[in-house]
Automatic annotation (TrEMBL), chain A:
Source organism of the structure: Grantiella picta
Protein name per Swiss-Prot or TrEMBL: Interleukin family protein
Family in the record: Belongs to the IL-10 family.
GO CC terms of this entry: extracellular space
Main location: secreted
Keyword terms of this UniProt record: Cytokine, Disulfide bond, Secreted, Signal
Disulfide bonds: 3-96, 50-102, 51-104
The organism's place on the tree of life at top rank: Eukaryota
Keyword Hydrolase: no
Function: Immune regulatory cytokine.
Native organism taxonomy: Eukaryota, Metazoa, Chordata, Craniata, Vertebrata
Length: 146, 213
């Protein structure tokens, strides 16, 4: 069956919009992207979407949010609120995986490897801040394709 | 590239202004420079390595540049930059923040057409079109860009000043059980939940229900 997960997209979106300018201003590297180049998320086949989504939520929970502490308490609060939403969605996606409703094919694994390679091409803090600044790329793709 | 000595004050407030994804770069002149300043513009796709010059905005004296063609792919994000020149001197390149056409555009109100019977009015709403390069190009409705697009509709009884609000996803609305021979005014707004985008309310369209037979 299909993997159906309820998500508070509007809430996540609002949280990110509130800190977008702040976070993106901390990422001076215009010529590299973690999520969108060289391969765009928008080219992912529908059959791979669930798996890529699960990979990405795991990636953000395990490798992004924890490296994004700032000196601004407002920004930090918004980041932890987004992180909590991601944690709960990741758990639901994990249940889908266990019930075999979120199968990972070769293409999604390959796509995710590219994302990790982009991330690992930078030092951890820069990579995490860049990834957080690209959250709207993930949200745009999810809203368009899900 | 034989850059001149850049001690001219910088262009200020370099930013995109976008309506229905017509994406125009705007800026303010450098402080205290008066007339004669010329500008050039470049842009880049976020995540891609190179800046691209905009020939139509080279040595211009206006303080805007339409980059709609260059930023029409709303699955990408962009930066743009402006440099000023005056009397052999130049400024630094001044950049925008990261521009996401999908979330950073403003949406015009919907177009409305209304008709009436004696006891009801019918409202047809049309979402604006995404900006397009030329009239002969294929039109793309913003409904296709924002699948979750909805309409908030306000209906006012001009006699009793009573107002109703409706929130609908499809583009037609029939308001029944109205008073014959009465003027009603309709206004509508576009609402996109995520990303959160609201148009203003449209101009009011007034119509009278037919008199009782």
């Amino acid at each position: 069956g299909a993997c159906r997960v309820s998500m508070s997209m509007a809430e996540i979106r609002a949280g990110f919009t509130a800190i977008k300018a702040n976070i993106q201003s901390r990422d001076p590297i215009r010529t590299l992207s973690v999520l969108s180049h060289p391969h765009s998320l928008h080219k992912v086949k529908s059959s791979d979407r669930c798996c890529i989504t699960h990979h990405l939520f795991t990636f953000y929970v395990d490798r992004v949010f924890k490296h994004c502490k700032t000196e601004d308490s407002f920004v930090n609060r918004k980041i932890s609120s987004i992180a909590n939403s991601f944690l709960s969605i990741r758990r639901k996606l994990g249940q889908c995986r266990e019930q075999n409703n979120c199968v990972c094919g070769e293409e999604s694994t390959e796509k995710f490897k590219q994302i990790l390679a982009n991330y690992e091409g930078l030092n951890v803090t820069s990579a995490a801040m860049k990834s957080l600044g690209e959250l709207d790329i993930l949200l745009d793709w999810m809203e368009k394709s899900h | 590239s034989g850059e001149l000595y850049c001690s001219l004050p910088n262009p200020r407030n370099v930013h995109f202004e976008s309506i229905n994804m017509q994406n125009v770069l705007h800026w303010s002149p450098p402080e205290g420079t008066g007339k004669g300043v010329l500008y050039k513009v470049k842009y880049s796709v976020y995540g891609v390595g190179k800046w691209i010059r905009k020939p139509e905005c080279r040595n211009i004296n206006r303080t805007w540049c339409d980059l709609s063609s260059e930023t029409s792919d709303y699955e990408e994000q962009y930066y743009a930059s402006v440099k000023a020149f005056l009397n052999g001197m130049c400024s630094d390149w001044m950049e925008t923040t990261r521009f996401n056409p999908l979330t950073d555009t403003k949406i015009d109100p919907p177009m409305i057409s209304v008709s009436s019977t004696d006891k009801s009015i019918s409202i047809i709403l049309t979402a604006p079109e995404k900006w397009k390069r030329s009239p002969d190009k294929e039109s793309v409705s913003l409904l296709q860009v924002y699948p979750g697009l909805q309409y908030n509709v306000s209906v006012l009884n001009k006699k009793t000043k009573k107002r109703w609000f409706f929130s609908i996803s499809n583009n037609t609305l029939v308001v029944p059980w109205l008073e014959p021979g009465t003027a009603y005014c309709v206004s509508a707004q576009i609402h996109v939940t995520t990303p959160l985008l609201d148009s203003g309310f449209s101009k009011e369209h007034c119509i009278s229900t037919l008199k009782d037979k």
